Amino acid sequence: MYILTFTLLEMKLFFRNAVKAFSSIAIPVILLLLMGGIYGNKPDATGYGMVDYSMPGYIGIIIAFTGLMSLPVSVTQYRERKILKRLRATPTHPIDLLISQVAVNLIITIIGFLLLLIVGKLMYQIHIAIKIIQLILALFIATISIFTIGLVIASFCRDVKTATAVSFLKNAWLGNGLLRQPMDLIVLGSVILLGLIILMNTFRWE
Fold first, then answer.
1. pLDDT tens digits for 132-157?
2. How far is CA 137 from CA 68, 110, 126, 130, 134, in A?
3. Which of 70, 57, 61 is nearest to 150 (CA)?
4. What residues contact 42, with CB distance under 8 A and at least 6 apart?
């Protein structure tokens, strides 16, 4: 019950934020139309065109926006504003809010995905080689994996300023020295270190 209530509330808040909604849904479609207008979708020897090859990238942009920007920033905002702490004094639990955040961003990802498919099919007759059930399953697995990274980022960040790498670049651009952003350095450094550890233990030459 609490999760459903939180999910509906979070959905309303999401669409009130024009930047979030535009970035997550509209930008990938604009890129699709822009690149499709330039290169078209004429099939090559394999039967697929430029738009066909680019579709996974556009879908990845949606997942990146929702999982690595929207999700960690929203959760971090609740921590910064002490909302998560206050929820502990109510019958509900902070985990309900986290689940609702994941649900909302998953719904937004699906909406963006479907919009891409519709526009791609109508404008460029994209080819979908995989069965739709397998496609949905692949989207779900990819999305949850990125969302997990987003939640890990959110768990390290105490405020919104450290929730995104973009804010780190912005502060550096505006003249704030790197040493003045210790938490940003710790978070981003941890992500890099973790990525390198995984890379060194999983990379294969063949």
1. 777 777 888 888 888 888 887 777 76
2. 20, 12, 19, 11, 5
3. 70
4. 49, 50
- Helix 94-124 to helix 71-80 angle (10° resolution) is 150
**pLDDT, mean of each 10-residue run, the chain (206 residues):** 75 77 83 86 81 85 85 79 75 77 88 89 81 78 83 71 55 56 66 72 56
**CB distance 75 to 154 below 8 Å:** yes
Distance CA 171, CA 15 (A): 27
| Beta carbons of 101 and 10 less than 8 angstroms apart | yes
